[in-house]
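Translate sequence into structure tokens.
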Amino acid sequence: MTGFQGSPVRLAGGQRVPEPALEAIGVWKRYGRRRPWALADVDLAVRPGRVVALVGPNGAGKSTLLRSWLGFERATRGTVLTGGYDPWHNRGRAIRQVGYIPQQPSLYDELSVAEHVDLAAYLRGPTFDRTRALARLDDLELPPRVRAAELSGGQRAQLALALVLAAGASVLLLDEPLASLDPLARRQFLQVLEQSAQASGATVVLSSHIVRDVEGVCQDLILLIAGSVRLSGSVSEAIRRHVVASAAAVPAGALVGRFPADTGDLALSRRTADDIGGGRPPTLEELVLGYLAAGQAGIRTPSNQIATGA
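Result follows.
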């Protein structure tokens, strides 16, 4: 294994493929012997340069997984790798090119916007692009002398994002940054994130339970339910492999889960050789709803690893 530097590769089936930016290999995690598993046998590999939606209901294990990649949590069993390094045992090397935004941005209320830029430049050193941070904040019309305590939720999120992007991180881990934002602030945040990821080629894992917000931004999907990966891989490929139809039209053997809709109950099905009458490709939200409904009904759907597109 190697770190992020130098476009690392590994051999798979005799071919050279990019080293995953993030990995979880047979990871189990719980917070006490009598507590339920927060993560249960998680196997994942996130390819570099992808924008990944990490979705699931509250308590699904999304924050635990992100914090494991940062070295904030230690797996009970299994291996976590960030840039090829175990962040628990080699945290310095593992996270030197990782940017992290928690649900509540870690800002100092008494410091101004400009002082946050100064602090980030001091802590990050020469890798921090002060000019880029200030330009981004100017575009967003964030007054440099205003204290963080006076900023709205959307402004605080944009300040945190500007600081992370200016640090030149090649991996961004964002833990529910949209949860407390109004619809306009969410759209502005995602627009900045998408443009920056495209320009830099950074790997982004965006945790959210608001599926509609991430639908147009993310290339890949990781769906966690009760600590287990129920679906992972390319969004476009996952949609291609499933179909949505009226609940009555879906055969039991292909059913993933039923969920309510404005036109009556719909059912998500795996695409089979037999056409389903009136079926159509699901939206990302419908794809997630089908698997969530299966989990809620106690239907044990097999973990569905979808190939990641180019």
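Note: The longest strand covers residues 22-29.
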